Amino acid sequence: MVNYIEASTAPPKNTGAIRLYDAEAFEGMRRACQLTARCLDALADIVKPGLLTDEIDRFVFDFGMDHGAYPATLNYRGYTKSTCTSINHVVCHGIPNDKPLRDGDIVNIDVTFVLDGWHGDSSRMYPVGVVKRAAERLLEVTYESLMRGIAAVRPGARTGAIGEAIQTYAEAERCSVVRDFCGHGVGRLFHDSPNILHYGRANEGPELREGMIFTIEPMINLGRPHVKVLADGWTAVTRDRSLSAQYEHTVGVTSDGCEIFTRSPGGLDRPGLPSHNG
Q: Where on this chain does a divalent metal cation 1 bind (predicted)?
């Protein structure tokens, strides 16, 4: 049985109940998410061959501090960085370090800022230098998967409709959908109910209701969907070492669809790729 609760009266922990947020909360999320989006826009100018992922991490930390925000990942469950940088066959949770990006890499940069108590969560893929066509196509398919998932969001639909839209498209494009990680509720909490699976059937999962806020963040592989987590306890990689990509938006369910809180103010939702109107 799924329980829904007014967010203003809910306890400050994940109890499994799905929070419904009011207009004031939506405004708080807009501010936090737009700060994150602006940071991701700014990163488009600095991601290039030779850049250390540690330099990306410092950039994100400084950007947040300069705007009165704190990176949510820093010291989260022992994680020591302000962002995640996932390169090539790394599916998610790649830890920034002193290794430079190389020409032809693709890297996901995942940023969550906490601003006035609200979490703005988003990630984008960045091509490094000149990438191969197979990598570019993976980015295109992954972004389109995200947007098709978002297009399925409306009151009365179920969370499974998001997963079905993503899975149907990605697999038709001869790619696979990672099952081990999912989107999640977000707001005052970094990770909250419900889980948003990126595969499934339209008649499955909790009903979407106006006021829900959550991330959609499909991870799409060129090869098989299976992943493993490395000994550091964070870094997830494809088992077959095939390329993986991910784009992530935070959305809020409205009366007739949804609002994308983390949409790029500079039109850079797909940095390094041709502009897209989706």
A: 110, 121, 248
